[in-house]
Amino acid sequence: MHDLIIRNAQVFDGSGLPAVMGDVAVSGGCITHIGQVEGDARETIDAQGLALMPGIVDLHTHYDAQVTWDRTLSPSPALGVTTAVIGNCGFGIAPCPAPLRETMLKNLSVVEGMDLQSLLTGVNWEFESFGQYMDQLRRIGPYINTAVFAGHSVIRTSVMGAEGSTQAEPTPAQLQEMQALVREAMDQGAIGFASSFSPNHSGYGGIPMPSTIASEAELRALTGVLGEQNKGIFMMATGSRATPDVMESIVEDTGRPAYISTVLSMYNEGNPDLGPTYYERCAQALARGHELYMLTSCQPLSFDFTLTDPYVMLSHSAFDPIKSTAVSEFPGIYRSAAFRNAFRENLRQPRAGILFLGNWRHIEVGQTTLPENAALEGQSIQAIADARGLDPVDVFFDLALTEDLTMHFVGKFFNNNDDGVAPSLKHPASVITLSDAGAHLTYMCDAGFGLYFLSHWVRDTGHFTWSEGIRRLTSEPADRFRIPDRGRLHVGLPADMLLFDPDTVGISKPLPVSDLPGGGTRMVRQASGVHGVWVNGIKVHDGHNYVEHHHGPGQVLDRFNT
Questions:
Q1: Which CATH superfamily is domain 55-300+419-484 in?
Q2: What is the pLDDT of residues 31-52, one digit of tens each?
Q3: Which H or E run includes 260?
Q4: Domain definitions of the chain by residue range
């Protein structure tokens, strides 16, 4: 008897081949038959009219802290994800000596937009070393398959303490210790090494995240461990310093594949020709036999924020006083003519790689509290300024001040034009991911990127066929990150599966919920058209609710293809 039979489904195997109509049988966590299945099962589902595909593989998440209090890694399983990679950009929580726990969490709260009190309340510290963290994950038993990066900023903090954000050059002994920690992490099953040179990545109180002040020589010394061991991948939030030339040189030196993540590669109407240069540069590297790829977002980069926590503005120098000031002092700063003039000057000459470049049509009024402001919801700051004959900078801050900074704004900064985004999605150097799931919780939730891709780029616009679109979300990302046996529905492979209705699949707008430890609030998305999600043959979500499990069924991934 089979454990599960899904009958009469349109089965996409994740390889890019056309779908076949048939049944899928599962036993012992693996697929045992595809086609016409005879016999009975402990559970049988009639999937008439529905499609079955491999679970979505999300290569860019930040669940490192959340997994210690939330085994489900919500909302990702509800949104079709069955495999996630955490620790991206070099931000995480392991290794971490006990005296540095608060330092680590304070930085993480800012750089990844997480509620600090929730982190301090919720993180369950049963580890100090990377290997102990991996052991804790195995004891926790996450709902989905989980792989972990060794992180540059985490390791720098672990070795250098708070000085990791101020001391640009480590001592020779400190550098050797950092290399040793990378080796240890790789020995303990890390998927690779991740870092960031991004100017957007600031830590607590406005200090730089440790890796962002590191030298290129230090970066090469740490990535060199991957070359020594001939395993692992390198992921980098590059900013403007780690150029494609630098990244290709590291690929050439180490022999390991590398992946670029940067807002500079996203479509930006202010500089529409910049992003394509990154893809072309990667294509040239690939032609030379050097594996260099772009991590690519398929969604508009949107942030829901208030001016009590202006993450999207912090890379402008005018906001430096905000970074080290109590929230109670913010109104006085925002009213200041000197502050506003400094901000205007920043916008006249914006630095490369920052989120907001000064186009006020890209910031809209979101949720308001005063009745007299309700009519402004959905209007851009520029439109309001034009109607009132005022400067948009003044309108922006004055509106926020009318509601004691509780007014929500929605910033739509990058990837906000389909014609500009489509070429990057179709480029051979692109890998579709970049959800940032688990991070920027108060501003956004892009954990449903896969369902958005299916609904928008496959069904609604027809830029991809169903077979090709599903391949781009499943087998391709698994292969690129050297994750074995995932992203395909083949006999003998683990049964990571998503059952959905092609006519209705999609995601909701971001919805606020207060379910974090200590009552913290985050944004989540809800799925439509999802009828079930299975990880290693076990249902984790039925399309409406999570299925309760005391352990697993996700695996902590620690072995990867070379």
A1: Metal-dependent hydrolases (3.20.20.140)
A2: 999 999 999 999 999 999 999 9
A3: strand 258-261
A4: 55-300+419-484, 303-414
